[in-house]
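Recall that a protein's primary structure is simply its ordered list of amino acids. Everything else, from secondary elements to tertiary packing, is in principle encoded there. The following example makes that idea concrete.
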Amino acid sequence: MDTNDLKTVGDYLRFGEQAFIQAGLYFGHGTDNAWDEAVVLLLHTLKMPPDSPASLLDQPLSRAQADQTLELFSRRIRERVPAPYLTGETWFAGLPFHVNTDVLIPRSPIAELIEQAFQPWLQQSPASVLDLCTGSGCIGIACAMVFPDARIVLSDISPAALQVADENIQRHGVASRVSAVASDMFDSIDQQFDLIVSNPPYVDAADLAAMPAEYHREPVLALAAGVDGLDLTRRLLGQAAKHLNPGGCLCVEVGNSAVHLEAAYTDLPFIWPEFTRGGDGVFILYKEDLIAWQDRQG
């Protein structure tokens, strides 16, 4: 299709969809198809929200809007950059978050658990929450919205990631009870929490090598976790108990490395929640489970 023939929002979306399909793009950073990816980029150009009405499809684009949209489409194809890095924003647990290439693009199924207030796994609303390996801060900040009386700590080893997290803290107006700290896992954490949530690096070497180009736009620090994907999770399991209050809950995403985890830790009673919106590889354990396991290790 000649771009000179494009007039309306619908025309540009259809053009983008076909161009993305023909280019063989991979979708997995907030959308799962070419149409929705084009929608994200075009709505960014128009400064319109994701829930814009269908009547928008018939709206004509100005020359400046058309040029900006086509440039975003071109970059998406040429550079294999996921849409959220082009727009600087993505959504998680119903909330908008600033992102850049210093942080992983939020997409964890843990969002569904947060929206459900971690029920039925939490006996009561947590007074303190740690978001370990926070990246953009999306998990901890979303927890702050669901648990309005809780104090939240966001931690990450990356200073650049913590800058993004701090921007999101300010954006959502939660600075009075959400703080961001630099820490290599638990090394700089000296308190206990009712809930620890973590989406640490968990991609094993084989999966990392086979990932589509879009994933290689993300910081490798936030993805790679050794041969079996458990380098960080091993440290987490060994240290989490002393940072949990009695009855405290640990929730961790390990994705495809779940198979390695269960093979390596056959005597830990992992709980694997099921998700209605897709996704898997998230486990739940309690402080007492971890202490009993550590006692068995001698």
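The chain has a mean pLDDT of 94. The beta strands are 89-92, 95-98, 128-132, 151-156, 178-182, 193-198, 244-253, 282-286.
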